[in-house]
Structure formats: structure tokens, C-alpha cells
């Protein structure tokens, strides 16, 4: 198992490129089930979650192979309609296959994902949406069994905005008979990118980029190539890495529009930000101003950046409140940050941070993807050495992250460890 060994106290500077969006690609891959054929997905990040989704597709008879950030997908021989527990438990996004399997084959058996490191993450909305499209759903032995001779267009309102359930319903509805109207659809860029991909494949979708999607079902779709959008969460993490070390960096190959809310917060915290085309420049040369952070659905502040903001605010002299309204238990990083000497209290779904206190290196345990990013960021400013264990969590969603940080002047070594 790998760990990161971080020597703190180095200021980051320079220029770095952002990879393709993990969450974006995880939605595109299952969409290839909808039309048998050959696809190339360019700008695919080489990440554990992408391998897991590819493994799942291959277990169903497809052939996926990643070479130099191009994912080749051949979905022609996909003929098994089951997502097994072993893969779904590794990655919840595996649940995305439910909609496309139902739409193309009229049946699917998909393991329930269960909880996740930071608490329960239900799939009730995915199931309700499929039922509304006419599928019969039953649950037995931890598996969802779904059947439908032909899905039928419907009207559906998401009482809670859900990225995954919107994506799943969209993929199911494009081949349904008639028109489907989805209201309170998720607005996240990864869903917009999925909708655009589906349209490129021949789907008819109105309202893309809005919370009301109208899908006119078609009989068939065709395979096409696509380029993944930039990873907005990786970009935000790198910008915070610059800010936390009082550094000055340029993050390239991003879509700044996807990061507007984060950019505003960085500016409020005292960063000098400049946006030019697909590049964001960020400079922080003093202690950050304490700035509260409350997550919400897009275009609000992403829950996937909450943990990183908590680490950043450890540098701010004064009190900050960081609240997660999307995943209210998502604070596994807090007890680990406390081991560095951080003064953080958890009250309900908020972290109350009394920042500006010195941090000293310690051994920390990652337990989820974004939480591990928060520990690495804190390691960059802690005095001495910080070991971050279980970086496989980080490897799920950050491509060559330690290499990128080292290019910017950090000292992060990946090492094998016996410690689990
Ligand atoms: C996606 C992202 C994840 C991000 C999250 C929120 C992927 C692969 N993952 O996850 O990185 O943190 O969006 O931006 O894209 N909910 C229900 N019932 C459901 C589904 C969701 O109650 O059936 C609730 C969740 O508990 C949560 C909220 O809806 O409170 C949003 O979750 P959702 O948008 O579905 O997250 P994911 O798609 O799982």
C-alpha cells in the first residue's frame, strides 16, 4: 500500500495542467451501452475509478482500454446485464449502468452500493425515476432487479437535486417511447456534458444546461467520439494548494466558468485571481482572510471542495464556519487534521475552525477521496514531515497528483508502506 511523505513549508509556484474530469468520464462510459459500437473518449484521466468502470463494462462483455488518456470502448458485444457487488462497492458511480441497461436491454441487475465512508448515500431517487419510466423494480439479496419491456416517457420532479439520478434518468429516457420531462434536474457540468454527448449520439434533448430537461425518445443512437471536460474539482484543489502555501500558480486547461463560485471565495480570502481563456492564475501572499463556506448544488460551492477549504482555513487567523448541506456527515478529515494540531469543532453539519495556529507533521489516515486531498494540503503547511496513509483514496480521483504538486515545488514522495 502507498503513502505520501510530505515535507511541509514549501511555497508552490509555476504552472500545471488539469486532467479530464473523473466524474464527467464516469457518466460518459455507461452511456456507450446505449448504442453498440466503438467510441474514443479523449482526455480521460488515468485513475482507479476509471479502471473500475472499465472493469465493470468489460465484465458485461464490452472491451475498454485506456491508452495515453484516450479510452477506447467497444460496446458491441456487451450482453450481460449485471453490475456485481464487488465492483459497485468500490465505486458508487457503477450504479450509472442501471438506466442504460434498462433502456437498451429491458433488464438490469445492479448491486445496491451501500453506505460510504462518510455516511449513507441512498439511491431511492434513481429507483423512483426508473419506476416512473415504467420499469418494475424489486430488491433481493442486496441487488436491484429492474425490468421493462419498453420504457415510456413521463414527467418527473427531483425533490432533491441529484447528479447521479439525473444522469441515470437521462440515459434511460433517451431511448424511451415518447417525451420525458425532468424538472429540478441537476445542473452540474458533468450532467450537461453527458447530455451533450447523448445529443451527439443522436438523442433529442431540450433545455440542456437548465434544470428542466425535455427528452424526446428516439429508436436508436450511434457511437461517437468525445472529449472529457476538465476536472473542476482537481482544478479547485490545485488553486487551494497555491493559496494555502502562499504561492503563485497558473492552472491550465480548465473551464473557469465551472469554477466561478470557488474563484469568488478564493478572492474573498485575499487571493489575487486572474482568468484568461482556459487558464486561472492564483496568488496568495498573506495569511488568508477567514471566509465561511457553505456547499450547495451547482453553480454553488461544491461539496467536493469542502474538505480542501477546511484545510485552507487552518491558515486563516480567526474563526471560519464550513458547512456541508449536501453530505452532512462528510467530515472524516476533521479528526485527522486535529492530529496535526488543528483547532476544529464539529457542530452538526459544520466545521468550526479556529485558524492561524501552527500545525506540526504527523501520520494521518485518509478515508475518502476529497478528505485525502484535505490531508495532503494540510501536510504542505505543517512543520516537519506528514505521512498520509491509504493514498489509494486519492488515486481514485487525482491523476499524478503528487507529481503535479512536486512540479510546483512541493516535496511529496510516494512510498510503499506496511502500515494499512
Ligand atoms: C456526485 C459526484 C460526487 C459529488 C456529488 C454531489 C459522481 C460520480 N459523483 O455523486 O463526487 O460529491 O455528486 O455533487 O459524479 N440523494 C438521495 N437519493 C438518491 C440520490 C441522492 O437522497 O437516490 C441525495 C444524496 O444523499 C445527497 C444529494 O442527493 O444528499 C446529492 O447526491 P447526488 O448528487 O446524487 O450525488 P452522486 O451523484 O452520488
Question: Which secondary structure elements does this structure contain, and how are they paired or packed?
Answer:
Elements: E1 2-7, E2 13-17, H1 22-31, E3 38-42, H2 48-59, E4 63-67, E5 70-74, E6 82-83, H3 85-88, H4 98-105, E7 107-111, H5 124-132, E8 136-140, E9 143-147, E10 155-157, H6 163-173, E11 179-183, H7 189-200, E12 204-206, E13 212-216, E14 226-227, H8 232-244, E15 248-252, H9 260-268, E16 272-276, E17 279-283, E18 293-294, H10 306-313, E19 318-323, H11 333-338, E20 344-347, E21 350-355, E22 363-365, H12 369-381, E23 385-389, H13 392-395, H14 401-407, E24 411-416
Parallel strand pairs: 2-15, 3-14, 6-7, 10-11, 18-19, 22-23
Antiparallel strand pairs: 1-23, 1-24, 3-5, 4-5, 7-9, 8-9, 11-13, 12-13, 15-17, 16-17, 19-21, 20-21
Helix pairs in contact: 1-2, 1-7, 4-6, 5-6, 6-7, 8-10, 8-12, 10-12
The chain binds uridine-diphosphate-N-acetylglucosamine.
Residues 23, 26, 92-93, 121-126, 160, 162-165, 190, 302-304, 326-327 line the site of uridine-diphosphate-N-acetylglucosamine.
Report on this model:
The chain has 2 domains: 2-19 and 230-416, UDP-n-acetylglucosamine1-carboxyvinyl-transferase, Chain; 22-227, Enolpyruvate transferase domain (UDP-n-acetylglucosamine1-carboxyvinyl-transferase, Chain, Alpha-beta prism), CATH 3.65.10. The radius of gyration is 21 Å and the shape is elongated. The mean pLDDT is 96. The chain is an alpha/beta fold and 420 residues long. Helix 1 (22-31) runs parallel beside helix 7. The chain has helices at residues 22-31, 48-59, 85-88, 98-105, 124-132, 163-173, 189-200, 232-244, 260-268, 306-313, 333-338, 369-381, 392-395, 401-407, and strands at residues 2-7, 13-17, 38-42, 63-67, 70-74, 82-83, 107-111, 136-140, 143-147, 155-157, 179-183, 204-206, 212-216, 226-227, 248-252, 272-276, 279-283, 293-294, 318-323, 344-347, 350-355, 363-365, 385-389, 411-416. It has 14 helices and 24 strands. Residues 23, 26, 92-93, 121-126, 160, 162-165, 190, 302-304, 326-327 line the site of uridine-diphosphate-N-acetylglucosamine (UD1).
Amino acid at each position: 500500500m502507498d503513502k505520501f511523505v510530505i515535507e511541509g513549508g514549501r511555497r508552490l509556484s509555476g504552472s500545471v495542467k488539469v486532467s479530464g474530469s473523473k466524474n464527467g468520464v464516469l457518466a460518459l462510459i455507461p452511456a456507450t451501452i446505449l448504442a453498440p459500437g466503438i467510441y474514443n473518449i479523449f482526455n480521460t484521466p488515468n485513475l482507479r475509478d476509471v479502471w473500475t468502470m472499465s472493469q465493470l463494462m468489460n465484465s458485461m462483455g464490452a472491451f475498454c482500454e485506456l491508452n495515453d488518456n484516450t479510452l477506447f470502448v467497444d460496446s458491441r458485444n456487451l450482453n450481460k446485464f449485471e453490475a456485481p457487488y464487488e465492483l459497485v462497492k468500490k465505486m458508487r458511480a457503477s450504479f450509472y449502468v442501471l438506466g442504460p441497461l434498462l433502456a437498451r436491454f429491458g433488464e438490469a441487475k445492479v448491486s445496491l452500493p451501500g453506505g460510504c465512508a462518510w455516511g449513507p448515500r441512498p439511491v431511492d431517487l434513481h429507483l423512483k425515476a426508473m419506476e416512473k419510466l415504467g420499469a418494475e423494480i424489486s430488491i433481493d439479496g442486496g441487488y436491484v432487479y429492474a425490468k421493462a419491456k419498453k420504457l415510456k416517457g413521463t414527467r418527473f420532479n427531483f425533490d432533491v437535486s441529484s447528479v447521479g439520478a439525473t444522469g441515470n434518468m437521462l440515459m434511460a429516457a433517451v431511448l424511451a417511447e415518447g417525451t420525458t420531462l425532468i424538472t429540478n434536474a441537476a445542473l452540474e457540468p458533468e450532467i450537461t456534458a453527458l447530455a451533450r454527448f447523448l445529443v451527439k449520439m443522436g438523442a433529442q434533448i431540450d433545455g440542456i444546461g437548465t434544470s428542466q430537461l425535455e427528452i424526446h425518445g428516439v429508436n436508436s443512437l450511434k457511437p461517437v467520439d468525445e472529449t472529457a471536460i476538465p476536472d473542476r474539482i482537481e482544478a479547485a484543489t490545485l488553486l487551494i494548494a497555491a493559496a494555502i502555501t502562499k504561492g503563485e500558480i497558473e492552472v491550465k486547461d480548465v473551464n473557469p466558468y465551472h469554477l466561478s463560485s470557488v474563484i469568488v471565495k478564493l478572492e474573498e480570502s485575499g487571493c489575487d485571481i486572474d482568468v484568461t481563456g482556459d487558464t486561472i492564475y492564483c496568488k496568495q501572499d498573506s495569511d488568508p482572510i477567514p471566509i465561511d463556506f457553505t456547499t450547495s448544488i451547482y453553480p454553488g460551492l461544491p461539496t467536493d471542495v469542502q474538505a480542501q477549504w477546511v484545510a485552507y482555513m487552518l491558515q486563516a487567523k480567526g474563526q471560519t464556519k464550513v458547512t456541508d448541506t449536501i453530505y452532512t456527515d462528510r467530515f472524516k478529515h476533521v479528526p485527522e487534521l486535529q492530529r496535526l494540531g488543528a483547532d476544529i469543532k464539529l457542530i452538526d453539519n459544520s466545521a468550526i475552525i479556529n485558524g492561524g495556529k501552527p500545525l506540526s507533521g504527523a501520520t494521518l489516515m485518509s478515508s475518502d477521496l476529497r478528505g485525502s486531498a484535505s490531508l495532503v494540503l494540510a501536510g504542505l503547511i505543517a512543520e516537519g514531515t506528514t505521512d498520509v496513509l491509504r493514498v489509494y483514496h486519492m488515486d481514485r480521483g487525482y491523476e499524478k497528483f503528487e507529481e503535479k504538486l512536486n512540479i510546483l515545488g512541493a516535496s511529496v514522495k510516494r512510498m510503499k508502506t506496511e502500515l494499512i
